[in-house]
Amino acid sequence: MTALVYILGDQLTRDLASLRGCAKDDTVVLMTELDEETRYVGHHKQKLVFILSAMRHFAQELSAAGWRVDYVKLDDPNNSGAFTGELARALERHAIDQIRIVKAGEWRVQAMIDEWPDRFDVTVRQFDDDRFICSLDAFDAWAEDRSSLTMEFFYREMRRKTGLLMSDGEPEGGRWNFDKENRKPAKSDLFMPDRLAFEPDEITLAVIHLVEMRFADNVGRLAGFGFAVTRDDAESVLERFLDCALQSFGTYQDAMLTGEAFLYHAVISPYINIGFLDPLAICRRVEAAYRAGRVPLNAAEGFIRQIIGWREFVRGIYWREMPGYVERNFLEADRNLPAFYWSGETDMHCLAEAIGQTLDHAYAHHIQRLMITGNFALLIGADPKQVHEWYLEVYADAYEWVELPNTLGMSQFGDGGLLGTKPYASSGNYIDKMSDYCGSCRYDVKVKAGEGACPFNPLYWHFLDRNRDKLQGSRRLAMPYRTWDGMDAARREEYLESARSFLRGLR
Ligand code: DLZ
Known about the structure:
Layout (H helix, E strand, L loop, with lengths): L2 E4 L20 E6 L2 H5 L5 H20 L3 E5 L10 H11 L4 E5 L4 H7 L2 H4 L3 E5 L8 H8 L7 H12 L3 E2 L2 E2 L30 H13 L16 H19 L19 H6 L4 H13 L5 H25 L18 H4 L5 H13 L4 H15 L3 H11 L5 H12 L16 H7 L21 H11 L1 H4 L6 H9 L2 H16 L3
Parallel strand pairs: 1-2, 1-4, 2-3, 4-5
Antiparallel strand pairs: 6-7
Helix pairs in contact: 2-8, 7-12, 9-12, 11-12, 12-17, 14-15, 15-19, 16-17, 19-22
The protein binds ligand DLZ.
């Protein structure tokens, strides 16, 4: 019996469930570069190069291991440009008895796969994506009958289930959470680890050329492309992180510094999400580093929480809430995202930094995404679907299953509090505390309204005031609303007029 194993672009894992148990001499592996996938949003040029080059390298790795790989390139003149079209063509090239595929990460693609049994005269076997630690069924069982879904409780379950950082059934160190220790601003440090960057090889150079030709108008800059495009190189990035950066990762995970795109971050999310690195295995290595005394508990716990807690949690939410989730807009926000999100050209230094490095590296760390670009979009009332599409475009690690809940839910409060208990809105104070950005900004963070004021300051109050009906019931916002109500009317009007005037000038 000959099987066709269709491997999607974010399933680059040798131990994929659909490959397991297949005989190499009786299996065709199909991989396809598609217009459908490369164009459903205007992906950052580096994201395209990363994914296509990683796919080509992975296909080469499978071939070298003895698999028969049928690989369709983007510029193949017969390429239909679609998963279903390419499957139909492959079935004409090969005599196949069974199609095997791991379920897609994105709802959009899974909806196509679900049509295949009716469309093709060949058995279609779909496999759960067991690279995730919590199956979707297990997530649903956990979520069932809960009135609210709280990441913290899910995370504790996952700690118990995996045994990570547990001792005798209790959390290591007697606490589940070390967030308080993990909110320190950073100073420039000569010994900050450099990012491990890789020179493009022949395969990557060919993909760079392809992207330059076909996607010349897409967002982002290709110069300095340095992503790992093989599993081995991704492994080296992980090792560098474990050896040089993890020890300070926790303490400085929320910090932001001008000119420092990576600080102590691992920058391995693109490699986990594409399938090169296994999330649970990474967490076990982080735990081992802690148990060997090489890194402090707050660093190990902060890292593990992101992977077995947040990452698994948002995936569960995504699959429970789709397809309607993408349309949610609790705050009825409808402003267009300003043009500078695609150019970085703004005199707000924090935004110029976060967006500038995004254009350079298809990367920004989570606090830059949440508290700079996300916070600003929230405060100005940007349409959450547009914000979602921007994040999906610009970040190399962005697939809808992980990006949508983080953006539309957590950052833009589009789901009305399903994912987070309050909107992540802040004035300039937070940015000033956690970064050195404000020191070199043309606006003054200490000026609260009017000429020269940091726009985040009046926008914050404008946001709270205009969304009062929807937000004032939140216990976590009681304090700011009390402060607002305690101001005299003239002061409040000064804030509101300052925000209105700024919003009128936004393009
Ligand atoms: C993101 C992406 C891109 C840009 N290109 C391709 C492609 O050409 N072929 C492919 O198989 N996958 C690609 N991907 C990843 C898919 O979008 C991803 O596998 C699906 O969204 C399912 O999660």
